[in-house]
TrEMBL record:
It holds the Pfam family TREH_N. Residues 15-158 form the Trehalase-like N-terminal domain. The lineage of its organism: Bacteria, Pseudomonadati, Pseudomonadota, Alphaproteobacteria, Hyphomicrobiales. InterPro entries: 6-hairpin_glycosidase_sf (IPR008928), 6hp_glycosidase-like_sf (IPR012341), GH15-like (IPR011613), Trehalase-like_N (IPR045582). This is Glycoside hydrolase family 15 protein. Residues 227-589 form the GH15-like domain. Keywords: Hydrolase. The keyword Hydrolase applies. The keyword Hydrolase applies. It comes from Roseibium aestuarii.
Length: 602
């Protein structure tokens, strides 16, 4: 009997994410693992087919295929990071795949191995399947050597060994031979270690324990009344983007998914931006998920120690690596959009908002009595070094929040965050009863505040503008109310929101800015900016309009509730790295801002 290949999917961001706070994997709608970097988020993508391949079709992909498959359904097990994919053919045969990364507490500590579990069972009929597991090393350039035993296969090369242990026929898997699925099968792919139990038994136990872990984690969240499913999915996704070992938080799980087709706006986001991480911490804090903040503060303390009160680069590697030299690898790119980049040149930038993001991320810890490790005066003194740098840089040119590579200005958003650093330090000092230090930082905050109001307000535009003495609008100005720089009812803030809406809004989506940059004028809306606009509208009293836009953004999520960085306003198509923490943060913030109170129903 021949083999009928499954229906072929066009590359898209209809992907589900699995992970365990050590690494992440992305699975397409037909159950193909198309992206997975090991041993950590920023490692070699041993499955890289999301960005194409220079080898044979199927290289860099782990697929469990149904003969003649024509359609599929995919969803998360509610309140977990476990993905179920059901695949059907035309003859009534169907299979179900279960994918997850083990994560649960055992022997008093978290178990989160660099391993993934794939399980397959019959749903109906007598399905015939084919397993095609083709990891590649060195960004697809190295075809590994293959060895095998009675119930495992090993891929060896480039200093890496992967082992797949299974109760399926090793011969069928190794030779990609189609076979009848006559019982449940489990596949455990990870380090070159022998399993301690039968694969089916161990993988079933791991699934049960992982599901229980995520259900307990979700149960502790302080949710808004409305939009709960969207918020839960966003919260789990943000948690999956944390590198628990160091406390770092990645901006996204991928590299080089472009902001729009044919633009070359392709970046590597698998690192920890101080700015993005602050927004993640703030969103999870709003749901009473404090563990992420505590872990991230460990990472931030090391950043401050490394920099010693001097320049802080805007991003670091998840292991605190400082040099993230940008280069290119020989892959076609997502839907043929090259180049494919590794590293990010932004580590060389001066982005002065970073000092405010550090202080803002740490500030709640000085007031929150729930934390296991309460910060003390020594921690405050370290933050003061950051504040000194913020004050020194508040009126100096930088690359800005949008990381412009060929132009430096005194960006209002950077100065705004420098103000926030001084303002929060005054409040923290007051908490410790340090009256003199509180007054000192309050005076500095007032000076920065006055400078921004004088130099960033453009009377001709009747709005704050993106740089001192500038003329252009910028969505980051919407953060003025969120960080407390101006009250929402300040006429200047309301006017700025109005001008931004008039200039940057396209339908129910918002662009970052309209002026051309290093790559020309932006072509797609930036999702976090739309969420900032939603927040600003709600704050100034236009709540129903904000709700309408928010629900438009929820409709743009993919089939399992995830968002990338950018959206095409006319079609709702997702572009940019995926899943983008900024965007998932917006889902949480919007729900918290717009939801009815629990008192309305209880």
């Amino acid at each position: 009997m021949g083999w009928t290949p499954p229906v072929k999917l066009e590359p898209s961001l209809d992907l589900a994410m699995i992970g365990n706070c050590s690494y992440a994997g992305l699975i397409d709608r037909m159950g193909g693992l198309v992206w997975c970097c090991l041993p950590r988020f920023d490692g070699d993508p041993v499955f890289h087919s999301l960005l194409g391949t220079r080898g044979d079709e199927g290289d860099g992909r782990f697929a469990i295929e149904l003969d003649g498959a024509v359609r599929s359904e995919q969803e998360y097990v509610p309140n977990t990071a476990i993905v179920k994919t059901r695949i059907y053919d035309r003859s009534g045969n169907a299979i179900e795949l279960t994918d997850f990364a083990p994560r649960f507490t055992t022997k008093g500590r978290m178990f989160r191995p660099n391993a993934l579990v794939r399980r397959v069972r019959t749903l109906s009929g007598h399905p015939r399947i084919r397993v095609r597991c083709r990891p590649r090393f060195a960004w697809g350039q190295r075809v590994p050597d293959v060895t095998f035993g009675s119930n495992h296969i090993r891929w060896v090369g480039n200093g890496t060994i992967l082992r797949l242990t299974t109760n399926a026929s090793i011969t069928y898997v190794r030779e990609e031979t189609p076979f009848l699925l006559d019982g449940p099968l489990s596949f455990y792919l990870g380090p070159d270690e022998s399993l301690t139990d039968h694969p089916e038994t161990l993988c079933r136990d791991f699934e049960e324990n992982t599901e229980l872990h995520w259900r307990h984690w979700t149960r502790r969240l302080g949710l808004p009344l409305e939009y709960q499913e969207a918020v839960i999915r966003a919260a789990i996704t943000l948690k999956l983007c944390t590198y628990e070992e160091t406390g770092a938080i990645i901006a996204a799980a991928t590299t080089s998914i472009p902001e729009a087709h044919g633009t070359q706006r392709n970046w590597d986001y698998r690192y920890c931006w101080i700015r993005d991480a602050f927004f993640v911490v703030r969103a999870l804090n709003s749901l009473s998920e404090m563990e992420t903040m505590e872990n991230y503060l460990r990472y931030l303390n090391n950043v401050v120690a490394v920099t010693g009160g001097g320049h802080v680069q805007p991003l670091f590697g998840i292991g605190l690596e400082e040099k993230l030299v940008e280069g290119f690898v020989d892959l076609p790119g997502y839907r043929g959009n090259g180049p494919v980049r590794v590293g990010n040149q932004a580590y060389e930038h001066f982005q002065h908002d970073v000092y405010g993001q550090i202080v803002l991320a740490a500030s709640q810890a000085f007031f929150d009595k729930r934390l296991l490790h309460q910060p003390g005066l020594d921690d405050f003194r370290r933050l003061e070094m950051v504040g000194e740098r913020a004050f020194a840089m508040h009126d100096q040119p930088d690359a800005g929040i949008w990381e412009l590579r060929t132009r430096a200005r005194v960006h209002t958003s950077s100065s705004l965050m420098c103000w926030a650093a001084c303002d929060r330090l005054a409040k923290i000092a007051n908490q410790f009863g340090l009256t003199d230090r509180s007054r000192f930082w309050a005076e500095r905050a007032a000076r920065v505040h006055s400078t921004i109001c004088q130099r960033s307000w453009n009377p001709g535009k009747n709005a704050f503008v993106e740089s001192f003495e500038g003329n252009d609008l910028d969505a980051s100005l919407l953060l003025m109310a969120e960080v407390g720089f101006l009250p929402p009812n300040d006429p200047r803030f309301i006017a700025t929101v109005d001008r931004i809406g008039e200039t940057l809004r396209r339908g129910n989506h918002l662009f970052r800015y309209h002026a051309a940059d290093d790559f020309g004028a932006p072509e797609n809306a930036f999702n976090i900016c739309t969420f900032w606009y939603i927040d600003a509208l709600a704050r100034i009293g236009r709540k129903e309009e904000a709700r309408e836009i928010y629900e438009t953004m929820l409709a743009c999520r993919n089939h399992v509730g995830l968002l990338s960085e950018d959206t095409t306003p006319a079609t709702g198509e997702l572009w940019g790295n995926f899943p983008q923490t900024y965007s998932m943060v917006g889902i949480i913030n919007g729900a918290v801002r717009l939801s009815k109170g629990w008192e309305s129903v209880i």
